[in-house]
Amino acid sequence: AAHRPKSSTGGVGLINGGATCYLNALLQILYGTDTFRAQVLAQDLVPERCTGRSILYQLQLLFSFLASSERPAVDTTALTKSFGWGHTEMGIQHDVQELQRVLFAELEKQIQELNTANFLANLYEGQLRDYVTCLHCHCTQERIVGYQDVSLPVKGSRDLQEALRRFTEPELLHGDNQYQCSFCKGKHNARKGLWFRTMPHVLTLHLQLFRYDTATLQRVKIHDRMRVPLTLNPADFISEDSGPEIDPDRNPTPSSQPGHYELTGVLLHAGSAGHGHYTACTRREGQWLQFNDETVSALGLAELQQYLDPTPTLNSDSDPIAPVGLSAPDGLSASATPRRGPANEGGPAEGP
């Protein structure tokens, strides 16, 4: 790779260390997220105090190389060593969603040790309202849970908006699964569901492209295609009576119009559940690029739509998977909170 010229796109690839295409694709998605990249590069880290096991420091170094290297591709060995990986781990393909969660958890630990602001929480964290409403007394029990990514069903979803609506669609608890209500002290039918309480600046959506087949006892890929839009309006999947939330750290003056997200990156998977390959499409300075390990190529809008649109004439071998990254442009509201809960029908609310 060192002897080839750098891509004319200006993008720098990542060398595959064995079976690390999934890691390379995720890193390109993260680097292509402007706010995340800026925060990583802005961390005031003293090299003498950072050991080889400092993931944050090694990620900062890697991002510096991606920003300035004249090589066509750079190595991720120092970063994977900071994970504690050896040759064996480099040859194993891990789950991308789980990798991002573990990576973020380790980064948050190291950020806490530095006593600096948790930029990961500021960028990626939102809140869900997990509620159960008794249909006998109409009282609601709820708890607030944080999230950094959202898993969405691909099977049966025509587009991303429908998948998000299905995610928030309440489930009816009835029959043998009736709800033991702590308010009216009886077992009754109930409505249980999740609701978006606040939205993060960067919304990461994991598309459930794999499932476990109980008949064959194997992991199989779902080949259903669903449309992924270039922009996403939270109003499409947040209650109509929701309003913008004022967040002093992230969103002190929300827009009077509902905020929207712009697509910043898509991780693609080609092949089967057992033998597949990951690539990434990210938007860099208004231009879409595709990263296939060491190879970087420009991606026109028509080519991008082959991955995002399920139209048969535009069918592609690669399917979108996690993470689909969407960012809220500066100055637009990226948070929303229900003024009235979707299932709170006049009864008292109780914590978990």
TrEMBL record:
One of its GO terms (biological process) is protein deubiquitination. Residues 341-352 have a biased composition (Low complexity). Residues 12-314 form the USP domain. Residues 235-261, 310-352 are annotated as: Disordered. GO terms for molecular function: cysteine-type deubiquitinase activity. One of its GO terms (cellular component) is nucleus. This is USP domain-containing protein. The lineage of its organism: Eukaryota, Discoba, Euglenozoa, Euglenida, Spirocuta.
